[in-house]
Amino acid sequence: MKAESLILDNQNCLKLLPDSFNKRRLNLAYFTVNNYLNEIQNLGKKQCLGMVGWPEIDAVSAWMISSETATFMKAGGLGMIASELPEAFNSCFADKGEKITVVTPLYLGDTGKKKAVLKGGVYTGSERKSVEVDKAAVIRVPFIKQNSDQLEEVEVEVYRGRFAKTEYLFLANKHFFSINPHADNPSAQDGCYVYNEFGVNEVERFAFFSKAVYVLIKNIYEGKVKGIELPNALLANDWHSGALSGLTKYFTRAQAEAGLMDEELAEELFSLPVIHIAHHLGYQGWDYENTTRILNSLYEYTALMVFKNAKSIKNNNRRIKNTLIVHDCYNQASCNFHLADRVVTVSRNYLEEVSKETDFGYDFRDILKIRKDHRNFVGIINGYDKKLISPNKEKIEALNKYFPGFNFRFYDENHLEAKVHNKEEFIRLISRLATDQAYKQKTIPLIEIYKFQSLLESIRNPEKTPILCMTSRLVEQKGYDIAALAIVNLVQKLREQDSNLEYPVFILGGAGNQQCFDILTNLKDQVSACDPKIGERIFVFRGYRDEFAYAVQLASDFYMMPSHFEPCGLTQMEAMAKGALPIATSTGGLVDTIEDGVDGFRTEAFFAGKQTVYGTMSLSKRLKNNEIAYAQTLERALNIFYHEPAKLQAMTREAMRKDFSWDGVGGSVFKYYSLLKYGHI
User: Fold this and answer.
1) Cα-flanking dihedrals φ and ψ of residue 183, to 5°?
2) Are 351 and 378 in contact (CB under 8 A)?
């Protein structure tokens, strides 16, 4: 332990940040440079420039720190990687004694859509999967709750369980990890993102989660927690665990400087490598109102010391001179972007976008450009276990039981005739849902259908009728505005063509916000007013049900993805595996996963504002914007459907053959293995 005199020398530094410091001018003069404070001041620069070496790791024993998992609490692709990457890694490398353990909250409660319970030693998450768990430890996490200015010891129970080939550590605390919604919870927030019954929002929840993970690791090092193996690397899954590198690298140094932590322990924690996995950079974990309280909770009585020395690497963005806040607001992602030993994003093309364009990289574009140039920022595309997304006999049998009276059939790339049969069944299904209210309420009660009638009499030849679906979340990212304009343009073209062509059927909708749903209902009304025969074939819905989503993809010829951004995208992989050719914008991981004209369709150009992000200047001058580019691509895909059936079938087979499995030849799990083991891919 450092001498007591050092504590006295620094006693003026051992203070919480003053209340609401971010709402008024605070002198950012740095303390006298000495000992560990010098390291804190220069660490952001050293990490971004790749000046810190990678430790020797004999056998990987990493922790995946994630707010979501597809196994127990899923909202999107972030949860998929947290379940599938560890499972694939453990399948490939467990015989070498190497593994990834998942660390995630043990959520409890019921949002009305998602429910999680712990009963009799069995935890059942919101995805209806169960695991036997045992209590492995109890830790105490210093944190400041709402309406308080005092740090208190918050008890967290640590449960351990194994699902398939992966060990899970669940952190349990009713106050922070309850998913019972508050009366004021926004309707669009669900699952682990609810504003909960205790008034805890998502940013505070995951700041506490990061702190709890840090305390657990520290307790294991100190011997206070036994039976849980120490990690030798941390995979921080997006902004939710963005505070981790600040805790392991800043907090430990500040504690050692103040004589509050043994220097050897501080060095052990400091040296633990952190790999930050960045998904969509637009989500960063902002919280202006709670900035002071969260920073004080994370860094305790060294908060002022840490803040005044947390210098960002010099760049052109005046908003991020300090690594802990952006402008004057707590930003959970910022710390890891500055301090993590490596940063990964979920596709190679998205790496290029975020390090070049502020529309994609936001305040961190310049930092990520520096990291990319110094080779500590890499792109590794998300994998997807193909056996989970290909047409599955058991799931199709379950689908037929769920929708009594229907008989969907299994197919693969060598037997596409069953897909034509599935189109016929699906047209019958949506027609019955539209006309039989009792059946609809029994099978998809939470899905709202907008102004739809039976198509059984109007469709003459289902095989010659293209079915296009867009069944992603109803959020701005997914480009429902682009889709609507492209469909309106297409309708005008269809009315000028051969009247013997079967008009397409559009299946559009999902769970999400009212604004996107309004775009779709207005589209249907607009097209119906222009041409009722085309308008009647637009099926618009709001809500989600696994079985219905599965039926849609079994029947669809095309999957529309006019995304404004798509860091990786998993839906296009799912669609391709089922023979629904993606029609996509050329952004993010869609560029890496779809080969235009071979296994899907992509726009020839892509724009961010007025900037051309993808495509040549001549193409950008001709196409002008994403709406025109996507409309052209949609028309191109339908022309092939109508006039080149042999090519369409060849493309469908090629799409279904494509394998994005984590552990396939050259698969992403091997890149993560190299990154964890050696610090590079």
Assistant:
1) -60, -25
2) yes
User: Is 50 exceeded by the pLDDT of residue 7?
Assistant: no
pLDDT-based confidence at residue 37 (cuts at 50, 70, 90): confident
Name the more confident of 611 and 441.
441
Residues 216-243 as b or e (16 or more Cβ within 10 Å = b)? bbbbbbeeebeebeebbbbbbbbbbbbb
- pLDDT for the residue numbered 34: 65
In this prediction, residue 30 carries a pLDDT of 55
DSSP state of 182: P
How many residues are present in the chain? 681
Angle (CA) 339-256-298 rounded to 5° is 55
d(CA 60, CA 62): 6
And the tokens for 507? 């299946």
45 CB contacts (<8 Å, ≥6 apart)?
A: 51, 311, 313, 314
Reported confidence tier of residue 26, pLDDT bands at 50, 70, 90: low
Q: Which residue has the tokens 């959020």?
A: 475
**Three-state secondary structure call for residue 283:** coil
Query: 449 exposed, middle or buried (CB, 10 Å; 0-12, 13-18, 19+)?
Result: middle
Under 8 Å between Cβ of 326 and 364:
no
H-only helix segments in 362-416: 365-373, 386-389, 393-402
